Amino acid sequence: MIAYIIGEVVDITEENLILEANNIGYNIKISSGTAGRLPRIGEEVKIYTYTHVREDAFLLFGFLTKDDLDIFKKLITVNGIGPKGGLAILSVMSADDLRFAIISADIKAISKAPGIGKKTAERVILDLRDKVSIEDAFMDKGTDGSALEAFSGETSARNEAIEALTALGYSSAEALKAVKQLNLTPDMDVEEILKMALKKMY
């Protein structure tokens, strides 16, 4: 219903943002992760929104990026995860961290979210594992076509490096996160990526 709102930050709490746009103050539910990345009160910000309509309420949920909004929309398709549960998960991990946890079946990481138990975390992984990929997590959300073409050239070496890290005893989530932090180029080989990733581990 409302794709995004550009306005002035009036008030921020751990769970709520008041944004003024065109002389209207919007109450927007946010994660603590979003709260920590918002500009200061009085500054302008663009918030992507999800509208949740109930019989007794009309609620807006806000995100700083389309990526955060997209992963939130995926989360709330999971049985037992409503908008509140989706925000709880995104309060303890970023969108990419959640992708890593789903891909590596890291139940413990997801169940750290308030109100999300082991069974619910398992359901998130089961329902979303076919809807997220390593490529989503490694993709620069602002890239153009030429960058994507270059990206595809480094995929094989990168994936082999991730497999090597897991063989060394690191969890899949740890391996994915370490490699994600690297500035990879298409000409890098597995050994080079592995050495750089190991440095990130220590």
Spell out the key features of this protein:
202 residues, alpha+beta, OB fold (Dihydrolipoamide Acetyltransferase, E2P), 48% helix
SSE layout:
Elements: E1 4-12, E2 16-21, E3 24-29, H1 32-35, E4 44-53, E5 58-63, H2 66-75, H3 83-92, H4 95-103, H5 107-110, H6 118-128, H7 134-138, H8 145-167, H9 172-180, H10 190-201
Question: What is the N-to-C succession of helices and strands?
Answer: EEEHEEHHHHHHHHH
* Broad structural category: alpha+beta
CATH topology of the largest domain: DNA polymerase, domain 1
Percent of residues in β-strands: 15-25%
CA-CA gap between termini: 46 Å
Describe the fold and architecture.
- There is one protein chain.
- With 202 residues, this protein is an alpha+beta fold.
- The protein folds into 3 domains: 4-64, Beta Barrel (OB fold (Dihydrolipoamide Acetyltransferase, E2P)), CATH 2.40.50.140; 66-132, DNA polymerase, domain 1, CATH 1.10.150; 142-202, Orthogonal Bundle (Helicase, Ruva Protein, domain 3).
- It is built from 10 helices and 5 strands, in the order E-E-E-H-E-E-H-H-H-H-H-H-H-H-H.
- Strands 1-2-3-5-4 form a 5-stranded mixed beta barrel.
- The protein starts with a strand and ends with a helix.
- Mean pLDDT is 86; it is low at 142-153.
